[in-house]
Amino acid sequence: MAPISIKRILISESVDPCCKKILQENGIQVTEKQNMSKDDLIAEIKDYDGLVVRSATKVTADVINAALNLKIIGRAGTGVDNVDVDAATIKGIIVMNTPSGNTISATLLCTIHPHVYVPQAAMSMKAGNWDRKKFMGTELYGKILGIVGLGRIGKEVATRMQSFGMKTIGYDPITPPEVTATWGVEQMSLEQLWPQCDYITVHTPLMPSTAGLLNDTSFAKCKKGVKVVNCARGGIIDEDALLRALESRQCGGAGLDVFVEEPPKNHALVNHPNVISCPHLGASTKEAQARCGQDIALQIVDMVMGKSLVGAVNAQVLASTFTPESHQWIKLGEAIGACGLWPCKLNMVCCFYHNLGDCLKDSSAYMTSAVMVGLLSDGSQSCPNLVNSLTLAKESGITVTRNHSEGLTQGACEVEISVNGSSYRATGSVQGGVPVLLELNRSVFRQPVSLTGNLLFFKAVASPPLLPSVTGLLATAGVEMESFSAPAARSGDQWYCVGLSSLLVDLGALKSLVKAAAQVSV
Ligand SMILES: NC(=O)c1ccc[n+]([C@@H]2O[C@H](COP(=O)([O-])OP(=O)(O)OC[C@H]3O[C@@H](n4cnc5c(N)ncnc54)[C@H](O)[C@@H]3O)[C@@H](O)[C@H]2O)c1
Ligand SMILES: O=C(O)[C@H](O)COP(=O)(O)O
């Protein structure tokens, strides 16, 4: 990827000092200013190329639009729900997080469970009491824990709670049941899960599909006295419904680290005797903060040097494609009303899913090879946000099957996408930190194709004059061919990939030579 010039960064929250140090050592000026009001931030942000935040800074569209030079928003932590990712993407601003930095700390907090009333007992003793009857707890041994969201934290919570003798069941729309079975979590539908649980803990991001996941209706399906934990994001458990359930004793207790409004103005939940709460402390350990601070600084430095783009939850992808059925060239960017810029979310793959899903479904447009490119660029197991992308894909009616089976080359991932009854398949892997495409719709490339830069994919009948014809055509369009990746097979319809100096303004120029085409800028 091309280097990005970042000269000045604003850190607007308490981020570990190593972050500032690493950035400065790499020639970036750093200003730290905490507790800014929205207006202060809007006035301040104008001068910076980068912004580093935690969860308290609300990086709204107003802030983003006031930023004249902003190129990167770094989240030293996991959740990016405080950043308007769409607004950033539309302005071409990369949003990146450090998704693994605080996993263990967050896990720690939610496993310190309200099974005994330790905080209340401690307060009572500080008040000079010795009350051994009041604080009767319950064992975890033999109890059933329902884990909603089986990603990084969900997995760590499961394995720890199993060590207390709990049976762990769960639900996740993306992490496959056979995967969670290997770490002892039996998956089932939420309908089946609610009535079985003695405890429920949620570990999903806050998204429209997870807001109010536990609500009046789901509480009613739970065992009387169920205990719940929310160390993920305020609002995943509906706060009003939780209060009602606590008051009716349908819910026997809650452990809350996060709130819809932080700090909460309404203290009804915090003050409830069966609630243990913390002021969003899931990531508040020295180790987690050091990791997140270091990770975000190094990720930014790597991006500035053009080495790699790690942790980006959005990426600017310009793509267009050709629909062979209608024999019409369409620019999908325009189809989704974004002038060729895909307003993607949670990795470029997600833009294909989330924003294109409806477009593809409704227009029965040809599923683009670009989709697969997007997938493969995130296709490695190391891609932390893939699960979220896949969630959104599913919501858009696109089925994605990922296969890391033994039949594949070491470390390779095969992706099959079904939409509108058609399937498309690609195989790729990550080599030297760079995602590569190995095979596209049965065209096996002679050399792995690096999925970086401006790429044109096209399907054409293999023939010796193809390369000179394409080169000539590109030259006429004022675009240089920087690389050419051909398939191993030399006959029939094959997929090719060409690295371009810039994307073609109009893919239609290729119409006379190719049967299908798509271009992306990664
Ligand atoms: N309290 C804290 O300080 C703290 C610290 C770290 C993370 N968090 C929060 O925890 C969340 C989870 O973190 P993670 O690192 O485990 O993320 P993750 O991306 O590894 O896992 C999230 C999981 O949720 C699943 N999911 C998405 N939609 C779902 C749905 N509708 N139902 C069930 N599952 C669904 C995803 O498929 C994924 O497996 C973060 O998004 C963040 O908001 C809080
Ligand atoms: O999503 C996260 O990483 C956690 O909620 C931590 O947020 P914080 O960095 O504001 O503590």
From TrEMBL:
GO terms for biological process: L-serine biosynthetic process. It holds the Pfam family 2-Hacid_dh_C. Homotetramer. Its EC number is 1.1.1.95. It catalyses: (2R)-3-phosphoglycerate + NAD(+) = 3-phosphooxypyruvate + NADH + H(+). It comes from the Eukaryota. Residues 118-282 form the D-isomer specific 2-hydroxyacid dehydrogenase NAD-binding domain. Belongs to the D-isomer specific 2-hydroxyacid dehydrogenase family. GO terms for molecular function: NAD binding; phosphoglycerate dehydrogenase activity. Pathway: Amino-acid biosynthesis; L-serine biosynthesis; L-serine from 3-phospho-D-glycerate: step 1/3. It is an enzyme of class 1 (oxidoreductase). InterPro entries: ASB_dom_sf, D-isomer_2_OHA_DH_cat_dom, D-isomer_DH_CS1, D-isomer_DH_NAD-bd, NAD(P)-bd_dom_sf. Keywords: Acetylation, Amino-acid biosynthesis, NAD, Oxidoreductase, Phosphoprotein, Serine biosynthesis. The gene is PHGDH. Residues 9-314 form the D-isomer specific 2-hydroxyacid dehydrogenase catalytic domain. This is D-3-phosphoglycerate dehydrogenase.
